[in-house]
Amino acid sequence: xxxxxxxxxxxxxxxxxxxxxxxxxxxxxxxxxxxxxxxxxxxxxxxxxxxxxxxxxxxxxxxxxxxxxxxxxxxxxxxxxxxxxxxxxxxxxxxxxxxxxxxxxxxxxxxxxxxxxxxxxxxxxxxxxxxxxxxxxxxxxxxxxxxxxxxxxxxxxxxxxxxxxxxxxxxxxxxxxxxxxxxxxxxxxxxxxxxxxxxxxxxxxxxxxxxxxxxxxxxxxxxxxxxxxxxxxxxxxxxxxxxxxxxxxxxxxxxxxxxxxxxxxxxxxxxxxxxxxxxxxxxxxxxxxxxxxxxxxxxxxxxxxxxxxxxxxxxxxxxxxxxxxxxxxxxxxxxxxxxxxxxxxxxxxxxxxxxxxxxxxxxxxxxxxxxxxxxxxxxxxxxxxxxxxxxxxxxxxxxxxxxxxxxxxxxxxxxxxxxxxxxxxxxxxxxxxxxxxxxxxxxxxxxxxxxxxxxxxxxxxxxxxxxxxxxxxxxxxxxx
Amino acid sequence: xxxxxxxxxxxxxxxxxxxxxxxxxxxxxxxxxxxxxxxxxxxxxxxxxxxxxxxxxxxxxxxxxxxxxxxxxxxxxxxxxxxxxxxxxxxxxxxxxxxxxxxxxxxxxxxxxxxxxxxxxxxxxxxxxxxxxxxxxxxxxxxxxxxxxxxxxxxxxxxxxxxxxxxxxxxxxxxxxxxxxxxxxxxxxxxxxxxxxxxxxxxxxxxxxxxxxxxxxxxxxxxxxxxxxxxxxxxxxxxxxxxxxxxxxxxxxxxxxxxxxxxxxxxxxxxxxxxxxxxxxxxxxxxxxxxxxxxxxxxxxxxxxxxxxxxxxxxxxxxxxxxxxxxxxxxxxxxxxxxxxxxxxxxxxxxxxxxxxxxxxxxxxxxxxxxxxxxxxxxxxxxxxxxxxxxxxxxxxxxxxxxxxxxxxxxxxxxxxxxxxxxxxxxxxxxxxxxxxxxxxxxxxxxxxxxxxxxxxxxxxxxxxxxxxxxxxxxxxxxxxxxxxxxxxxxxxxxxxxxxxxxxxxxxxxxxxxxxxxxxxxxxxxxxxxxxxxxxxxxxxxxxxxxxxxxxxxxxxxxxxxxxxxxxxxxxxxxxxxxxxxxxxxxxxxxxxxxxxxxxxxxxxxxxxxxxxxxxxxxxxxxxxxxxxxxxxxxxxxxxxxxxxxxxxxxxxxxxxxxxxxxxxxxxxxxxxxxxxxxxxxxxxxxxxxxxxxxxxxxxxxxxxxxxxxxxxxxxxxxxxxxxxxxxxxxxxxxxxxxxxxxxxxxxxxxxxxxxxxxxxxxxxxxxxxxxxxxxxxxxxxxxxxxxxxxxxxxxxxxxxxxxxxxxxxxxxxxxxxxxxxxxxxxxxxxxxxxxxxxxxxxxxxxxxxxxxxxxxxxxxxxxxxxxxxxxxxxxxxxxxxxxxxxxxxxxxxxxxxxxxxxxxxxxxxxxxxxxxxxxxxxxxxxxxxxxxxxxxxxxxxxxxxxxxxxxxxxxxxxxxxxxxxxxxxxxxxxxxxxxxxxxxxxxxxxxxxxxxxxxxxxxxxxxxxxxxxxxxxxxxxxxxxxxxxxxxx
Lengths: 480, 1034
Prior knowledge:
heterodimer; A: alpha/beta; Alkaline Phosphatase, subunit A; 9-stranded mixed sheet; two-stranded antiparallel sheet; 14 helices; 17 strands; about 35% helix; globular; B: alpha+beta; 5-stranded antiparallel sheet; 36 helices
């Protein structure tokens, strides 16, 4: 679509199209429309931003969202004090009267619990990691850990919505929708925004609004890729039909549309024609993008055996790399199951077993392909967990929701590797240094993509909305 | 995907551009939007962020003196106006708007502001806050087609823009357009032909009247309201369980079909419960304010949820009725419109006094609800109630035999004591275990105390040596202990206990190193000193062998030790020593409902002397003449319910119980719907600082927003008064907002494009006089919906051809001036309904529970909470479920049906008054490949074959007629036939492909049909159901 002015009016293009079609009469061959279309689609769909606000470091984002709220004290935020004072009451001067959820709010006792996992330092950067992350440990020098994340939401629904849309209330566009709106797609034969949910996880629910477009046009909403033989809804032809049937059908449809166009020069008819052609191309491009048969044994070794199981987190990570290669702008993974109100020891083991190797493999894989520099990868959840146990202290203790601090990591796409940013107090209850709000995180993500978060706006109900509401500061300290 | 992006964005950018013809500057149209968008944020209604001491939303302030001493606007004198000086300043620090706002003025805007001031700075209050007046429709040249006043306004504007109206659409197009617009379905070929043949001058009116009278009208028009009312079939948050309020959906459809005046429509929904002697229908209507999303997420703070519920009601109220964006004023004064935060919380005070828990309990019927029986159900229920009453009367009547027998029984029992004479030997436990890992400790009084881990289910086992034979009774004591919950007898959160099974075993003393050989001792009778009354919690449940039933001690209400006695069938034990084991099972659905401290005893005497509870025995011990009425009744009740052996009485008694059970079971099958019930006393309301529920500021009382006319005296200051205020003549917004939505429905875009925002950031109306004329006329007509819709579709404006020419698309790409008829893609519901209708599959059954036509697997599961009752989608079966109109499709709000979602149907999580209309490749994939659409194609293929005859041309012609609602051209017929023949070859060469394709149909295909042929026609039908002309309202 090199000549935008033509298509904007829809008019200068029409007569030539009409002439072109009429030459073929009713004997229109299979090539005609597809040729015509492909000549028009050399350039991918562009977004609302005519040009970027500044030079972009990242071209795309892969967000490995860990739903449920992973425990920061048992992963990346090493707190020996909690082990030293294990079983002691959470001191009042630490809690400072902060609200608790309805679940532990009526507990008479809030005993501190140390992490049951061993911590050690890794890489040249000496990052502290719990023993649950042996693979992540291998790539720490590429990661930037942010340990001073915080949010206002205390329950899952509002908290996940906050991370993904910038507001606790439903109705705002998700990050991927903003990017699709702002930047458009790199590859027009694939959606700009793809979502994958680890299959069969259950736990705290997700909502399709988390990848919705809110008040933005619905074409910006995330397209969910699913495990199984129908990776995108309705991508498969009805049973019994082959691709050539579809092609001839599209051609016949094209003839009838051409007839209609003769009677009525409505640009919408043109749109319809291209919409159908694009859907046909997607029927090729999506199966190609989701076909792992060209992946080497070495790759599967890196991501782990689970990567051969479609719909697993590992398979979704590998799929994410394939989509990144093909120019998908925003690739959103969801992995549920981190809501450990009980059994931190067992639960954390299970969750990390499912995620550690593949997350690290994605970093390694992108790096070896030279893509890490232009791909921003994020790993984290919606909030953290309490330093005290929920219920009575026992060996299979749990931790309640804790919005006041949590840890995530970011990598690639212009983020400084091998560093840690922000600090919590020794109890891992409050933030001691450089708090990072959800909106700061979002502002930084947009910044890496060449977008000033204050200038990507959409006017709705009289107000210019943006992802970061009226807040957000770019974390300049973590930029490479 | 790509092209649409351009078409839409460019059209949007130029939406208002063409509205500015060469005429004099109009403040509301030309100037206010600039001031609002670029200046109000700092010089507008919000006091907190106001700079410089002046505001541009008020004339007095804008023309007056600012803090600096300068006058922002000096009418007629741009050179003296500080506004002009500042927007032209070359000093970056001085220039307005400040660069950091990213809202620079364009050259054109600077010119406009300058010439506005130069021409005298004529000021107007914001148009939508001034009540509409009915202007005289402008005269137009007689050569024009004028059907009614709408055309006068439209034509006079077209003339100013140097455009002319298009010719009238041909009749086939017209009847298809109006049939879709009034019923959501296409016309049948017969209807089209009848219209083509009707030569009378009012032929079109006849069609319109027929459509307005059709029940399909409400099913179509109603769904626009259901979008606005955010109606859905699940709670919308967290578990997102089923919630029942389809009777509200049916009420909407019915009210519209009955042409309920729109003011009444509003009043009943806003305040039906406050009307005198409200009918059930009026109560169902109040579901409008209950339709918002709700939650019961664990850990939710009820006060916070209550606040969110009320906020949703207020925001929806603002959007739906007043086109006003109230959401911002939850946290601060509005930045663009004169609405204060206090206005918001004063409205809040009307909506915060519902008599019900803000948390929905994950139930389908969180109170307040109304039962909504169908007429048949109502009759049946009345009949059952009558039968119950009859039996009750009989039971309550005189029973001389019982009156005689009771004192004799009393005397007999009175002689016995409950357990007074029984000797009990306390068991000295040797081993005791907990299945849930509790720590058990033996106390000095030989009771066992449980502490530590507290599993959801718990089984205690206690063993002891047994001396001698002849034991026949076991006593269980549940003792109080301070370490139990609340110092009671139980370990559950409320200290209640449910004992599901009580078992006794014996064994001979095993040889060294061997396990005891436990033999079950059968228990035949049990008695307890108390049983929980609200449900089936009798002591007998602890010896019935069923783990699901149990004895409950009502420990949450009674902090007392409990005692239960168990009698064995035969004496147990053996000469010398043997072993006994007692097992206490707590395995009910009530987690942790276990005893915390127990003691066991044995007796060789018959343990249960009398089968009466201790409290009854106590009454018997009172002399007959000393008993009070309560005691007498209690005693008689016990005797009649538990003791008497009178056959005749028992027949009546048990008959009544069975009948009551039948009524109860039946009652549960009756639908419920969420309604409003006001608390007797209004809840206080407060200004919530930053909108936070836990930051209440000053108290506020109910009052309407100050920028609007006050409520009339005599109205009650409650929701009813508020509703009447909305529909009073003085209210400038309600009728306009409503009429605008109707217009949007027919023409694709409202006269005010931003139908959700009539404030200063909204787009000004394209035809302000027409909007006002229609609004006033609507009210004058008694808010007659059908009449006002008829006026719109009868207009020549509506009846124009929608043919687009290059000139038109250049001058008016969005068709806001209406020099042509409306043309746009059909809505999600219309697309699916059309496919079902033209293929003959549609089942036109009105109302009832929502239905679940098939959708791809796994959509609900991917987002669902494992504990939710909507975690797995299971498609309904049967034509009357899967082939219903889409308005009846079940909407799970966290995962709406893809057939809706892909075509811009809202999720119904929040109020929507304007749908986006996009065109994406995913839509093409759905229409081609969705099994429901393929099924429709098969049926359409079959139908056309049946109706079209033998000849492929005539079949093709019939199929085109059904889908296009017009006479097809020979080129079209030939194209379809050519495609058919090509496909036929394919299917004839691969008959198994035809089999596979046809298997997608819900029913088996008739054996005598030629399958390759049908498959090829299916392809043709599938193609037609994807044709632009078929997907579009032309």
